[in-house]
UniProtKB/TrEMBL annotation:
<feature type="compositionally biased region" description="Polar residues">
    <location>
        <begin position="216"/>
        <end position="225"/>
    </location>
</feature>
<protein>
    <recommendedName>
        <fullName>N-acetyltransferase domain-containing protein</fullName>
    </recommendedName>
</protein>
<dbReference type="InterPro" id="IPR016181">
    <property type="entry name" value="Acyl_CoA_acyltransferase"/>
</dbReference>
<feature type="region of interest" description="Disordered">
    <location>
        <begin position="185"/>
        <end position="225"/>
    </location>
</feature>
């Protein structure tokens, strides 16, 4: 697997994801954000979903129009009021790889956090709307801020050159925000019960087992979506 930076917002990169496999697929074709990806093949012992098992495509759309080999992707741009802060706007993992133990989402977030430091950013932020994403971002070195967006998403952030300061109390305060919400799924209810009064997860160690590269890919402005 390879972690690759396709470009910063100024490069206007575009990525055509299969909307049957990825959430937020339409957010990666606008050219308005930077993009980084995990691409390649998952481990041989992982049981991947065959394309043939997915729903049919419209007659005017073919498989060849999607970018091949993408396992996870993140779109990001600078904060409008804080030029030293980078927002991770959309983070998506291929549907059959979610919960696989590969930690693709946390590892990709940690990857772009490190690249943001090289770019001169001092802080990375992300807003999440579910408890699983909240928990996963703690593995990337993020921590809850106690703030929410207007859409009731919890905001997490981390310094680009270090792990955020984390504590059980702050972690649990974020979980408590989800516990107060109505309409939680059975899986969310179970997760929250199992994580009552526990410490936040340990940050992942990205190491160098996967290749980290600059792809050099920067689609020209005006490329068809």
């Amino acid at each position: 697997m390879e972690f690759a930076l396709l470009g910063w917002p100024v490069d206007e990169p575009r990525l055509r994801l299969d909307y049957r496999r990825f959430s937020y697929a339409g957010k990666f074709v606008t050219g308005k954000t930077g993009i980084a990806v995990v691409r390649g093949e998952p481990p041989a012992d992982h049981e991947s979903t065959s394309v043939d098992s997915l729903g049919p495509l419209p007659e005017d759309l073919s498989e060849s129009e999607f970018d091949d080999g993408i396992l996870a992707a993140v779109a990001f741009n600078a904060d409008r009021t804080d030029p030293k802060a980078l927002w991770l706007r959309y983070l998506t993992v291929r549907s059959d790889l979610r919960g696989s133990g590969l930690e693709l989402g946390p590892r990709l977030a940690a990857f772009i956090k490190a690249r943001a430091a090289e770019r001169g950013y001092t802080t990375v932020r992300i807003a999440v709307n579910n408890v699983f994403s909240y928990h996963a971002l703690y593995k990337s070195g993020f921590a809850a801020t106690g703030r929410e967006t207007g859409l009731a998403e919890l905001i997490l952030e981390a310094p680009t050159d270090a792990q955020a300061n984390v504590s059980m109390s702050t972690y649990q305060c974020g979980l408590d925000q989800f516990r107060k919400r109505e309409g939680l799924s059975d899986a969310e209810e179970t997760f929250l019960q199992e994580h009552e009064s526990v410490d936040p997860p340990e940050p992942i160690h990205t190491g160098r087992s996967a290749q980290h590269v600059d792809s050099g890919v920067s689609n020209p402005p005006g490329t068809s979506e």
